Amino acid sequence: MGYSVLSLIANALTGQRGWTPAWRDAEPKPFYDVVIVGGGGHGLATAYYLAKEHGLRHVAVVEKGWIGSGNAGRNTTIIRSNYLLPGNEAFYEWSMKLWEGLEQDLNYNAMVSQRGVLNLYHSDAQRDAYARRGNAMRLHGVDAELLDEAQIRRLYPFLDFDNARFPIKGGLLQRRGGTARHDAVVWAYARAADRLGVDIVQNCEVKGFLRENGAVSGVETTRGAIKAGKIGLAVAGASSRLAGLADLKLPIESHVLQAFVSEGLKPMIAGVVTFGAGHFYISQSDKGGLVFGGDIDGYNSYAQRGNLPTIEDVCEGGMALMPALGRVRVLRHWGGVMDMSMDGSPIIDRTPIAGLYLNAGWCYGGFKATPASGWCFAHLIARDAPHPVARAFRLDRFATGRLIDEKGVGAQPNLH
Amino acid sequence: MRIPCPYCGWRDAQEFAYLGDATVERPDPAAADAPARFHDYVYLRENPAGPHSELWRHSAGCRQWLAVRRDTTTHEIIAAEFVRGRGARR
Amino acid sequence: MSRLRQGGLIDRSRPLSFSFDGRSLAGFAGDTLASALIANDVALVGRSFKYHRPRGIFSAGSEEPNALVELGAGARREPNTRATTVELYDGLIAASQNRWPSLAFDLFAINALLSPLLGAGFYYKTFMWPAKAWEKIYEPAIRRAAGLGRASLEPDPDAYEKAHAFCDVLVIGAGPAGLMAARASARAGARVILADEDFLLGGRLNAERCEVDGEAGSAFAANAVAELASLPNVRVFSRTTVFGVYDSGIYGALERVGDHLAEPLAYAPRQRLWRIVAKRAVLAAGATERPIVFGGNDRPGVMAAQAVQTYLNRFAAMPARQIALFANNDSAWRVGLDIARAGGEVAAIIDIRRAVAPTLTEEARRLGVRILLGGQVVSTSGKRLRSIKVATEKGVERLSVDGLAISGGFSPNLHLAGHHGGRPAWKDDIAAFVPGRAPPGLLVAGAAAGRFGLAACLADGVEKGAMAARDLGFHRKPDAPPRAEDEAAAVEPFWRVGASRGAAFVDFQNDVTAKDVQIAHAEGFRAVEHLKRYTTLGMATDQGKTSNVTGLAIMAALAGRSIAETGATTFRPPYTPVAIAAFAGHHRGKDFRPTRPTPTHAWAERQGAVFVETGLWLRAQYFPRAGERDWLESVTREVKATRASVGLIDASTFGKIDLQGRDVGAFLDRVYINTFSTLPIGKVRYGIMLREDGFVMDDGTTARLGETHYLMTTTTANAAKIYQHLEFCLQKLWPELDVKLTSVTEQWAQIALAGPNARRVLRAVIDAGVDLSNDALPYMGAREATVMGGVKARLFRVSFSGELGYEIAVPARHGEALANALMEAGRGYDIAPYGVEALSVMRIEKGHVSGPELNGQTTARDLGFGRLASAKKHYIGRVMADRPALRDPARPSLAGFKPVDRVSRLRAGAHFTALGKPAAIEHDEGHMTSVAFSPSLGHWIGLGLLARGSERIGERMRACDPVRGGDVEVEICSPVFVDPDGERLRV
Amino acid sequence: MFDFLTRFPPALVIPPGRYGAAGAGVIATRIEGLEIASLAAAPDRIEELRGRCRADFGLDLPAGPRRAAGEDVEFIGVGPGRWLALGGEGLEERLRSRLSPAAAICDQSDGLILFDLTGPRLRDTLAKGLAIDIDPSVFRPGDAATTAVALIGVTFWLLDEKPTFRFAVPRSYAPAFSRFLVASAAEFGCVVS
Ligand SMILES: Cc1cc2nc3c(=O)[nH]c(=O)nc-3n(C[C@H](O)[C@H](O)[C@H](O)COP(=O)(O)OP(=O)(O)OC[C@H]3O[C@@H](n4cnc5c(N)ncnc54)[C@H](O)[C@@H]3O)c2cc1C
Ligand SMILES: NC(=O)c1ccc[n+]([C@@H]2O[C@H](COP(=O)([O-])OP(=O)(O)OC[C@H]3O[C@@H](n4cnc5c(N)ncnc54)[C@H](O)[C@@H]3O)[C@@H](O)[C@H]2O)c1
Ligand SMILES: Cc1cc2nc3c(=O)[nH]c(=O)nc-3n(C[C@H](O)[C@H](O)[C@H](O)COP(=O)(O)O)c2cc1C
Ligand SMILES: [Zn+2]
To answer: I need a labelling partner for C569 at 20 to 30 A (CA). Which of A145, C584, C634, C812 fits?
Structure first.
C-alpha cells in the first residue's frame, strides 16, 4: 500500500489491520540475472536502481542476517558532500542530490534532514585546509561557508570558547548536509525494490562462489546454490572475506568503529558538529538522543564492538568541545565493522574475475554514499562501464598511483 | 584489550601503536618485479576473521615492535613476541 | 503518609527534606527518592515519551522505565534520572519532565488521543509533502514533543576522575549470590573486588522477609559485608555499577562518589570511572521482574510486585491503600502475604494459573486474602489507579484498588554476560533467558543464572566464587553454604491479556504497545532486531530491562515461532547509562590534553609573547610591542629586524634523534632519499624521507657529530611518528644494522639565531677559543662548543629564515639563560625575539616547504626535490614513487605566487583556475598552500601547488577563494622570493 | 575539573604548597642534583655491556623493568637493551669512558624531571592514572615500569616500602604531570615540596 496521510487515517480507523509487509521475505530462486550480496543500504539501493533505471527484472539481494544488520543499521547517519578531492566530491554531491529527492522517489519518509554539518577548526593551518576544501566544493557548485568564531558562537553558544585547550576559531559549514534516519533508508529501498520485483532473501549467507571457466556463475549460500548472470558484492565490513572466497585479495582492512547514543533529551544540538582538535562529532536524533562518535579503535576486528580507550577518548573530545554534556549520559554504545581501504576512499569497479563486481572500501563514510553508490554500482553492473561520477573508484589505483587520499596519511587504514 | 609485552608484562592496548599485518615481508627493491611486489607489500594485507599476526609497537612502554597473534573475531590475544630477533638476519 | 510506623532499613533518626515539583516533602536517610515519594503518597511522577501519559513509579531499581525526573538545578540539572536509584539527601530538588505546562495538566497529552494515528512507524509514512516542510515544520515539532528531560546548557561544574583497579575475582552484585561468591573466593585467598550499584548491600536480602543461618536476611547481609570489608584482600565498592565487559578481563564500573550529596565534597569527584582488570568475574546481578501486558497497565499505581515488596520491607513505605496482585508465578504471592502481614489491605491475588502451590493459597486464605485463580486483569481506570476489571470464569468484576502489583515472571540480569556477543538461551521451566556463552573468565551465579531460590542462590554463589578462585590456583574447600529455604518459584509463561481493552504497554518508557508489535508483525518487521528498530521497543533509557522479553514473546506468538527461535536483541554497554563527563574524567578544559611548554616558555612570557597551540606544544606566536595595531604589524617588525640585523626563536620543539652505531650512515641512506653516509663529520645535510608508498613523510636536517654518531631533526609535528618509523626499520626491516636510536628532544633547548649580525651576537655568548669564522664553521657546519662559561652546547649553522643563522643547543635547563644571554648580547643590534608567524613568513620568502606542503599528498618531485633523490641507492618509498601517476608531469608542483595588483591580499586554500575561464572544477589546477605578507617585498606572496607549476613562471592565473569572497589575479613566479642564490646564508 | 586547578597556568608546574583537603595523603618532592643518562646497546653487545657494568660498577644490569642500585650509580631497565642510569656529577662521562661503544650513551639530565612521591594515600592516587597493578603484593621495591599516566609517558620505580615511588617525567610534560597528580591527590591532601 502507498504511504500517505490517507493510508494512516484509513488504518487508524480499521484498527491498523490494513498494513502489509513492507517487502516480501522472498525464497531464493534458482537463477537471477544479477545477485547482489549484502542487504545493507548499498546492496538494496543497487538492486532498486538496477530495476528502476536499467529495467532488470530478475534481481535478488541476499543477506546473511536481517536487512540493515550491518553498518547501515548502526551508523551515525551523517550525510554531507564536503569532500576535497575531485574523485570524491562529484560523487558525494550526486549522492546529496539523490538524498534530496529520495523520499518522494521511494514513497518513504527517511527523515532526510538538512540541518547543516559544521566542521570546526582550531588553528590557522586548519582554517586554510578547510578553505581549500570549501573552495573545492564551491568550484563543484556545492554549498560551503567558512565561518569565524563569532558566527559559531551564535550557532552554538554552549561550546567551550573560553577555557578550551584548543580554542575554536571557526568552522566550515555545509548547510545542505545533515542526517537521515539510517534504518528507514534501508527499509525504504527494500520496499521500493520489492515493488519492482526484486527478491530480498534474508538469512541467506554467501559461503562461496560457483565458477565456470574462471568466471563466477553463482553463489553458494546457506540456503542453497543460486545461479546468477552477474554478481555484485556490497558487503561493507566483510568485503575481504567474500573476496577471499573468490581468491581475491583486496586493499582493505576491517576495523571497528564505535558509536554512541545518549538518553533522550529535549532539542539541544541543531545540526551536526565535528570537533577539529580531537576525535568527536555529534548530532541529535529526532527521538532526542545525542548520537556521537569519534575515531576508529585502530586494529583489525570483526567483533562489532570496541574498547574503553576509544570510548574515553570520544567522551574527552565531547567534554572539551561541549562541557555542558557532562551530566548527559551515554545510553548505549556499539561498534560496526568497516572496510578501511588503503587510501580511505571506496572502490566501485569490476574485479579481475568475469561476472564479479565490487562495491567496497567505504570506511566510516559510506552511509551518505548510499544512494549514489547504489546508482553507480547499478550502472556499472548493467552497462559494464563505470558511471562518470564514480570513475575514480578503481581497484587498480593502488598500482597506478591514482590514489584518493583525502587525509594524506598513506597506506595506513587505521589512520584514515 | 591488554597485550602481554615480553618485556613490560600485560599492558593496556592503549599503550601500543598499531601497524597491521605482520606477515608481509619487504621485497627486494632490486628485483625485476619490484613494483608489483611492493604494491602487494604496501597495499595487500592479510585481513582474516580469526587469528591474525599483527605488528604493534609498545610506544608508551619499552618501544619495541611486537608481533602479536590475536583473534579478530574475539580480540583474544594468543601470543606476543618481539619482532627483533624473530627471523632476523644476524 | 504511607510510611509504616516501624520496620524498614531507613534511619528514622535522620529526617531529610527535599522537594518535588516545588513541593517540600520529607523522608529519611536510607530512602531513595522513589521510596520517599511513595511515603509521601505521590503517585504521579512523570509523563511518557510519546503519548505523554501520566506515569508513576514502577520498580525499585535501575530497571525503572517510568519515574524519570530532572534532578538538581542550573548547571547541575540532570535529566532522566531514575527516582528509584537516587539516594535521598537533604535539600534534594527534583522535578517531573516531558510535560507542559504542568505534570497534572499536560497539553501534549493530546498525543494520546491521536494514538491510533501514531502507531509504530507512522512517521515513515507521512510528512513527505511538501519536501521542504520537513526541516521547517514537521521535524521541529516532532523534536519538541520527543526527547525527555532537558540537559543543562551550562558547563558541568563538578569534577570527575578515572581510576584503575586490579583483582583476581570481581564479583558484580552483592545479593545473596554475590556475597557468597565474594566470601568464597576471598576465603580461598584471592584478591577480590565486590561491587554493587546500590548504596545498601544485600540485594533482595534487604527487600524480602527471609532468614539465612537463622538471622533476618538483611542482618545476614550486613554481617557478610562487614566480614568482607575487614579482609585485607577484599575491596567493597557500594554505589558502583559495573556497566560493561571489555576485552582481556577489563570491566568498566562507575562509582557514584558524591551523588548522594547535594554537592560533591570539596576535592572529591562527583563520580569515578573504574577500569577494573579482573582475572575472573562472577556476575551475580539478580533478576528483573517483568510486567504483564494488558490495557491500562501503565497507570500510576501499577507496580512490579517485587518493587512493592521492596518499598514495604526495606523502606517501610506502603505504595497504596488497597492493593491487588496480578501474576503468573509464585513469587508475587509472597508479596501479597507480606502486605497482609504488614497490615496492608490486599484486595485480591489474581493469578492466571488455575493451580497454585497449596502452601501459598493456604497461607493467603489464613490471612484472609481473596484469591482469584485463572483470573486476568482486563482494564484499569483512574488517572491514578482507582479500579481494575478482572475477568475470571465467572465473568468480569470491578475491584476498587489504588495499587496493583503485577508480575509476569523474572528475567535474569544477564546483560553483562552478553557484552561479547554470546546469545542467551531460553529455558522453558523458568520462562526466561539464561546466559549463553559468556565473556572469557566470567561466571554467572544466582538469579542472574536463572536460579531463583534463596538457598540455591547462596549455594551457587559459594560454588562460583570458589570455582573462580580455584581456577587461579587458590585451592580451599569451600564452606557449606548458609542455611536458607528455597521458596516456591513456579511460573507459567504468560505475556499478555488477549481480551483486554485500551492501550496495553509492553515498553512503558517508549510507549510501545501490543498493537505496535502487531503492526510490526503485519509489515514484516518480524526479526527481533527489526521489531526493536521499527517500534523502538527496548530503546529507551531502561534499555528494555522490563520489556524486551515480553515484546519478543508477543512477536514469537504472532509469528508462530518459539521464543528460542525468535531470540533476543543484542546486549550493549552500559548496563545503566553513564555520564559523559565520567568517561572524560580529568581530561577536559585546559586538561583535555597535556600542555607542553618550550624550555624558554617563561622567558617568552616575559617578552610579552602571544602563544599558539602547535600540537601539544605551546609556542610563541609573536611578540607584540606597545603601539602595534595587530599581529601583522608585530610580525612584520620581527621579520624586518631579523633580516636587517638579528632575531631569535626557540626551535626546541623539533624532534631530535640521536643515532649511534657502525651502520648509521648506511641506515640513513635507506631512509632518506638523499645520501648521508658521505656526509663529513661536522656537517649538516637537509634530507627528505618518504613513506613506503612514495609520498613525502617528513623533512629535516641531520648532522654528523662523529664517525658513528649522527643527530637527526624532524618536524615538530612528526617527531613521534618518525621515531616510530625508524624503530620499525631497525627492528623489523633491518635488525642486522648496528644503529642505536635515542630521542633527545626533551634534553636540548635549541635556539635559532638569525640575521646578518647573528655571528656577532653569538660570539658574545660563546666561550673563548671557539672559532666562528666562515671557514671554521661554514654554512651547514656543525660543532660542539661551550657557551656562557662552560655550558656544553652544539652549534649548527643552518637556517630556515634564509639569513646567516645558527641553531644553538644547550641542555634544556640552560635554555632560558641562553635566551637571556643572547638578548643581552644582541641589545646593541636591536635583537628581536620572533615567533612562529615570523618564522613562517621568512620560510615562505625563502620558498622552504613546511606543513601545508608536506601534507602527505605530495611527492618529492612535486616539491622540487626531484634532484635531491639519489639514483644510486635504494631507499624507502623509491619503488612506489615511480608509479605512473606519481611521475605524471601534470601533477601540481611547487611554485611561487604574487598578486598582480600588489596591494591584494593572498589567502591559503585558494584554488588556481585559468583566467577568463569560469570558476569551475574543470578549470581547477591546484591550490595555494601558504601565504605571507612579505616585509622584504612589501606585498603578499604565496607558495602553491599548481599543475606544471615550475614550468609556468610568468603566467597569470586566478586564485579563487569563494568561501572568503576573494578572487585575486596572481602571477606565477619562483618559490624563492628572497636571496635566490643563498648569498646571505654563506656570509 | 577542580576549580583550584584553573588558578594555575597549564604550562607551568604546580608550585610548592598544600593542595586540596587537609592532611598529607600524598607528598611530592622534586628531586634535583641527580644526573641521568640513557643507555642503548645493540642486541649483540648486551652481554659485553653487562660484563663491563659488573666489572666497573659492580652492578648487574637488570634484564627486565627493574632497578639495580650501587654506590654512585643506579640503572633502571626501560626496554630490551635500554636503561636509564642515574648518578652524581659527571655521570655521562663516567659511563661513556667505561661503557662506550658497547652502548650509546646520551645525557638526559635535562630531559627528565624526577619526582619522589610518597604518602599513605599514594597508591590510591596513582591508581587514578596508572593502568598497572602497583599493589604491594605485586609491585615490589626495585620494580620499575615505563608506561603512560593521564596521557603522559613516564618511567617510575619503587624505592622502598613506605612506599616511595620515583617518577621520571619528560621535561615538557612535567606541568601536565603535576596537574594530574595534584588533582588526583586533592581529596587526600597533597603536599608539593
Ligand atoms: C559506527 C559507525 C558510524 C558510521 N557513521 C557514518 C556516518 O555518519 N556517515 C556515513 O556516511 N557513514 C557512516 N558510517 C559508514 C557506513 O555505515 C557504511 O559505510 C555503509 O553503511 C556501508 O554500506 P552498507 O550500508 O551497504 O553496508 P552494510 O549495511 O554493512 O551492508 C552489508 C551487508 O552485507 C551482509 N553480508 C556480509 N557478508 C555476507 C555474506 N557472506 N552473505 C550475505 N550477506 C552478507 C551484512 O550482513 C550486511 O547487512 C558509519 C559506520 C559505522 C560502523
Ligand atoms: N522467587 C522468585 O521467583 C525469585 C526470582 C528472582 C529472585 N529471587 C530472589 O532474589 C535473590 C536473588 O539473589 P541474587 O544474589 O542472585 O540477586 P539479588 O537481586 O539479590 O542481588 C543482585 C545485586 O546486584 C546488584 N547489581 C545488579 N547489576 C549490577 C551491576 N551491573 N553492577 C553492580 N551491581 C549490580 C543489585 O544492586 C543487587 O544488589 C534471592 O534471594 C532469590 O530468592 C526470587
Ligand atoms: C542514529 C542512531 C540512533 C540510535 N538511537 C538509539 C536509542 O535511542 N536507543 C537505543 O537503545 N539505541 C539506539 N541506537 C543504537 C541501536 O540500539 C544499536 O545499538 C545499533 O543500531 C547497533 O546495533 P546492535 O547494538 O544491535 O549491534 C541508535 C543507533 C543509531 C545508529
Ligand atoms: Zn613493552
So the answer is: C584
